[in-house]
Amino acid sequence: MDIIDLRSDTVTKPSPAMRRAMYRAEVGDDGFGEDPTVNRLEELAAAKLGKEAALFTASGTMSNLVAVLTHCQENKEVILGAGAHMSYNEGEGLSALARAVLRTLPNDSCGRLSPQDVEKALAPQTGLIALENTHNRCGGAVLTTADIEDVARIARRHGLPLHLDGARIFNAAIYLGTEPTLLTKHVSSVSFCLSKGLACPVGSLLCGNKDFVAGARRYRKMVGGGMRQVGIIAAAGIVALETEIERLAEDHANAALLAQELAEVKGLKVDPAAVQTNIIMAEVTDGKSTEVRGKLASYGVLVTCPDEARVRLVTHYGISRRDVTEALKRTNKALKP
Ligand SMILES: Cc1ncc(COP(=O)(O)O)c(C=O)c1O
Q1: Cα 330 to Cα 310: distance, rounded to the nearest angstrom
Q2: Does residue 311 contact residue 267 with C-beta atoms inside 8 Å?
Q3: Which residue owns the Cα nearest ligand 1 atom 9?
Q4: N or C: which end of the chain has fewer CB within 10 A?
Q5: Which of 2, 1, 11 minimizes the C-alpha distance to 303?
Q6: Distance CA 92, CA 140 (A)
Q7: Which atom from ligand 1 is nearest to the alpha carbon of 64?
Q8: Alpha carbon of 317 to ligand 1 centroid (Å)
């Protein structure tokens, strides 16, 4: 039985074009700024997001950590949503390594922060505000330009930097049918991942103005992120930015179909209207999410459990329309009362 792996868009496999680009990549020591492939990827990423410069890092977690280190000195507070990946999954690292205090606020079901809450949470020790787009724990929900502007206005008024964890920023842009630069225009820095919907094996970029990126480069080195002849993996990133962004629409269409059909499955509750991009959160109405995960796994469909009550399914490169239909067939069998 073939495995249909819907655990995450991080389980994508590099395309043949990426493999070829990696094989042929021209490399040099990035520690000296001499890897031409990395330099090209960084220029391309900065241009895509309308920023002056970009820095290639090992992961989304490293980009966010380096962003906090660069923006926000020791013991300063970062204001962010309680469900944000940076607080939920990266909080310990940010506290321990950046010595930043996370001031979490409730986010709504779309990952938005209330501007009033943000305003109220501001204090002399506030060093940074952070948003996430698309929002992972909110099922890939999208922040609009207006949502971002609401918070950016406050940040600007108080002279604070605003960081955007845009691990899936291109999914947001594709959903909105907008230029990604409109979503990043009002933020001081933005990180995004190559190793999710863009289907690269490794990598993330952190973008901002030249001074910010120069500072970030020092912090990346400090956290062990100087990767030397890393053009070998940056080459896949160039292919991703040149060819994989538009393809995300296929993942969104597959997720929409999956959500629509899962809504009919007994034992699961899914709101297809809430599925905007490539992530589906299905509420388990009968038993625990781990039981559902186990039943699906026995039929070769892999999903994750963000909590006891929900399973998460993610569409991505390598998951075709036929895989989605097959996954639905198997889900129906696995969860048959
Ligand atoms: C919104 C968000 N930010 C950051 C990350 C971290 O990325 P990485 O796994 O590359 O460290 C993830 C990973 O899933 C994520 O979903």
Answers
A1: 18
A2: no
A3: 60
A4: C
A5: 11
A6: 23
A7: 4
A8: 17
Mutation probe of ligand 1 site: the residue of 11, 195, 196 with most atoms within 8 A of C-beta: 196
Spans in the chain with pLDDT lower than 50? none
**Helix, strand, coil content of the chain in percent (nearest 5):** 45, 20, 35
pLDDT in tens, 36-61: 999 999 999 999 999 999 999 999 99
Question: What are the extents of the domains in the chain?
Answer: 15-243, 247-334
The CA distance from 314 to 62, in Å, is 23
Residues within a 6 A CB radius of ligand 1: 59-61, 85, 132, 136, 165, 167, 193, 195, 204
Could you tell me the two tokens for 324? 């989605």
Contact yes or no for 315/258 (Cβ under 8 A):
yes
Determine the Cα angle at 171 with ends 231 and 137, to 5°: 105
Q: How many CA atoms lie within 13 A of 95 on its CB side?
A: 10
What's this model's pTM, rounded to 2 decimal places?
0.97
Give the pLDDT confidence score for residue 209 in this predicted structure.
Answer: 98
User: Residue 74 has what pLDDT?
Assistant: 81
CATH architecture of 15-243: 3-Layer(aba) Sandwich (3.40)
CATH number for region 247-334: 3.90.1150.10
The span from the CA of 296 to the CA of 327, in Å, is 9
H helix runs in 31-124, sequence order: 36-48, 60-71, 85-88, 91-97, 115-121
Which tokens is 252 given? 């969104």
Residue of minimum CA distance from atom 6 in ligand 1: 60
